[in-house]
């Protein structure tokens, strides 16, 4: 179902046509290598390259009898090539073709995801710079902590996606390996030159050692990288969902003309896109566990991994591509309410400045324990009055504080600028 929504570029990668074409690319490159070794005559190679094609319907028809997809593919190609087809697949086992071609498909999908991540980073950066100095409350445990800016929150997302970029680049590098080493990886029936030639032509690296397959830790690394990236999008989406709560109303998904929030309640504006992203992250996370389970196969191979990989790799890359596209839209169209951010920040009557008062008392020579006790007592009084009596007013009535801190110095503690003074430095680290 996800294919309805993802990009044409990603959908094309996982088509049957592209899969079989990659198989054919491997086979033709192997034939070229054999030709260079003198195993295939020039005229035979020319015939193979001119006539080697396949028909998906015919492959499916043959597979009903063979119950083996690679043999069905080779038979379809052979029907088009004729007698010279005897030179195709020389000394190779099915996984020499399938795993090498699969690596190319995964590599292509990873590169598409890198493009999407860059698009998201550009969108996040634009909004981060826009809201660099938009003051808001930072929350820990869901409770007011200290002032920060909304731009700082977005800058953090940008930097996290930068790490996801680096992880994905490493995962692509480690999956971009091929193998043409025969039935159990001994090169008994195929010259190592064939592997070197094919991998070089197809822009892969030959595996230094393999069994009948490429080892699945490579695939698990790629899948867990997708899961981590999806987890980041889930994290960002969860934050927006929290900020869109009616009680906060600090930021919300864009709401298009004609959009409806509820079949029953006309007033509703729900963060449905962020919720969709959150749900899909769970799917990708589950698929990554399957990839880890695929690492432990019997002896030199079995095919328990094969059935799962036909699902988890297309589904996860398609889903993440879709999620990234969705979140670009969320960030671009995010509605931010600075006034509400300021209102919420001020709703606790200045309690968010308690640490500054604490540190002023410590600077005056009072022990940290005594300073903490004094500040906490005054903070609790403000809470008892439901913040209608501000924290600064209560502190200004406490002689234990005024005997050590002047009113002017105390007032300086309640300055938002103190908390935003290093924003330029942080932004410089990230964006410059």
Task: Describe the fold and architecture.
The chain is mainly alpha-helical. Among the domains are: 94-177 and 212-253 and 268-342, Fumarase/aspartase (Central domain) (Fumarase C, Chain A, domain 2); 351-413, Orthogonal Bundle (Ribonucleotide Reductase Protein R1, domain 1), CATH 1.10.40. Helices cover 64% and strands 5% of the residues. The strands form 3 sheets. Strands 1-2 form a two-stranded antiparallel sheet. Strands 3-4 form a two-stranded parallel sheet. A hairpin with a 2-residue loop joins strand 1 (135-140) and strand 2. It is elongated, with a radius of gyration of 31 Å. The two termini are 41 Å apart.
Question: Tags for this entry?
Answer:
Fumarase C, Chain A, domain 2, two-stranded antiparallel ribbon, two-stranded parallel sheet, mainly alpha, 19 helices, single chain, 432 residues
In brief, what are we looking at here?
The protein is mainly alpha-helical and 432 residues long. The chain has 19 helices and 6 strands.
Count of helical regions: 19
Characterize the largest beta sheet: strand count, sense, and whether it forms a barrel: 2 strands, antiparallel
At the first level of CATH, the class of the domain at 94-177 and 212-253 and 268-342 is Mainly Alpha
H-E string: HHHHHHEEHEHEHEHHEHHHHHHHH
What is the fourth-level CATH superfamily of the domain at 94-177 and 212-253 and 268-342? Fumarase/aspartase (Central domain)
What number is the mean pLDDT? 95
Helix/strand-derived class? mainly alpha
Please estimate the helix content.
55-70%
CATH topology title of the domain at 94-177 and 212-253 and 268-342: Fumarase C, Chain A, domain 2
Label the overall shape.
elongated
């Amino acid at each position: 179902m996800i294919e309805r929504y993802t990009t044409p570029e990603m959908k094309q990668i996982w088509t049957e046509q592209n899969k079989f074409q990659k198989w054919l690319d491997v086979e033709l490159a192997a034939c070229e290598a054999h030709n260079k070794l003198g195993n295939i005559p020039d005229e035979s190679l020319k015939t193979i390259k001119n006539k080697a094609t396949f028909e998906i319907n015919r492959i499916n028809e043959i597979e009903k009898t063979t119950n083996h997809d690679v043999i069905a593919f080779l038979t379809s190609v052979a029907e088009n090539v004729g007698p010279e087809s005897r030179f195709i697949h020389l000394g190779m086992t099915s996984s020499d073709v399938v795993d090498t071609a699969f690596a190319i498909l995964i590599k292509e999908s990873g590169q598409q995801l890198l493009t999407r991540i860059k698009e998201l980073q550009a969108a996040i950066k634009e909004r981060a710079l826009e809201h660099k100095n938009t003051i808001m409350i930072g929350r820990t445990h869901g409770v007011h902590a200290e002032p920060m800016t909304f731009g700082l929150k977005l800058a953090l997302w940008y930097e996290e996606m930068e790490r996801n970029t680096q992880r994905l680049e490493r995962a692509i590098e480690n999956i971009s390996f091929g193998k043409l080493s025969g039935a159990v990886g001994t090169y008994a029936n195929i010259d190592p030159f064939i592997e070197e030639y094919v991998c070089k032509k197809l822009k892969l690296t030959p595996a230094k050692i393999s069994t009948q397959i490429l080892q699945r830790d490579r695939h698990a690394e790629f899948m867990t990288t997708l899961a981590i990236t999806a987890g980041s999008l889930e994290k960002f989406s969860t934050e927006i969902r929290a900020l869109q709560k009616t009680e906060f109303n600090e930021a919300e998904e864009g709401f298009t003309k004609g959009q409806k929030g509820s079949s029953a309640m006309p007033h509703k504006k729900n963060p449905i896109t962020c919720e969709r992203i959150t749900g899909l992250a769970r799917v990708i996370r589950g698929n990554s566990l399957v990839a880890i389970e695929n690492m432990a196969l019997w002896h030199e191979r079995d095919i328990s991994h094969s059935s799962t990989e036909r699902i988890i790799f297309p589904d996860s890359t398609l889903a993440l591509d879709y999620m990234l596209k969705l979140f670009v839209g969320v960030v671009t169209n995010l509605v931010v309410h600075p006034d509400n951010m300021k209102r919420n920040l001020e709703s606790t009557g200045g309690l968010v400045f308690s640490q500054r008062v604490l540190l002023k008392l410590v600077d005056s020579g009072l022990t940290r324990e005594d300073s903490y006790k004094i500040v906490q007592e005054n903070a609790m009084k403000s809470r008892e009055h439901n913040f209608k009596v501000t924290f600064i007013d209560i502190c200004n009535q406490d002689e234990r504080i005024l005997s050590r801190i002047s009113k002017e110095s105390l007032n300086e503690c309640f300055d938002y600028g103190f908390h935003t003074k290093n924003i330029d430095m942080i932004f410089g680290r990230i964006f410059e």
